[in-house]
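Moderator note: this is an archived Q&A kept for reference. The question asked for a predicted structure of one protein chain; the sequence and the answer are reproduced below.
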Amino acid sequence: MLKTRAKYYLGQVVRHRKHPFRGVVFDVDAMFSNTDEWYEAIPEGSRPKKDQPFYHLLAENDQSYYVAYVSEQNLVADYTGVPVSHPDVGDLFGDFEDGSYPLQVQLN
């Protein structure tokens, strides 16, 4: 049996190791749980292993807001203390405090 422990938690602000975006974790999959088409769209040399946690983020960059799906190996904690401006943050989380967001809704 595979045992996986997520490094990042719901409400935590993280950033991508290679690409210029950051976001708030709003869901975690213990291992890859997206489509094969999505996975194969990633260049072969950059594809992350599927047997690690994958995070759903309310993400932002300089141009837009979106939802991102990112492997644990490609994330680092963001300790800047700067809140994320994604317009959907308030639907799931309370006010930004001490570098993260408290969960405000009941998830299944």
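Archived answer notes: The longest strand covers residues 22-29.
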